[in-house]
Amino acid sequence: MLLALESKNKLKFIDGSLPKSDSSDNLFEAWKRCNTYVIAWINLSLSANISQSVIWNHIASDLWIDLKHRYYQGDKFRVAELYEELYTLRQGDMDVTSYFTKLRLIWEEIDDFRSIPSCACEVECSCGLGTVRKYRIEDQVTKFLRGLNKQYAGVRSQIMLMEPLPNINIVFSYSRRRVAGEPRRQREDGDETAAAPPTNSETAATTPVEREIVAVAHGERARRHHSCGSSQQWQPE
User: Fold this and answer.
1) What pTM value is reported for the model?
2) H/E segment holding residue 172
């Protein structure tokens, strides 16, 4: 709902920053029309029982506050449910993509309830929010790896020894590529293949897993630059 209102530039009608205009104001009719739109959008998103209980509320900000006071306390229980679901989730019979997608949905809903504020530091973070955000990213990588099936035990152990840990999207992309490439590696076992010369970042990596993760990161960055139409070549960090 918030995204829909923001896309229509109507958030000010529910946060109280655009109060009701006086009936003699030239903008009153415009405010009234927009306020009616917002109320209709909110009512359409509610269940029938809840919608009937707020049908007489004709000011969008009052309607929003009323709903928030009714159901805000339930958010705490929902957050607890999300963390319980997160801790118990394992890959099991799912493929890596389905497992990662379920984790991503839980993480995004938790972030919606418990988002980390943006850091206002100009150069180097001194407020501690950067550290909090780093810990959350590390927790996501750790949870993803610990929930994978046993065949990923070797890769999981080597990634967990890396400092700093790779981005969660890089770890997922690497894990998925390992599964897709396993049959090919089995077919090519014993064949003589010409190895591509290592890049500077691959040479700096100390293990095969690190070198392959660097290659995955290189490919992800290169695709993003290409899709954005950038001609600047990505350089390893």
Assistant:
1) 0.58
2) helix 168-187
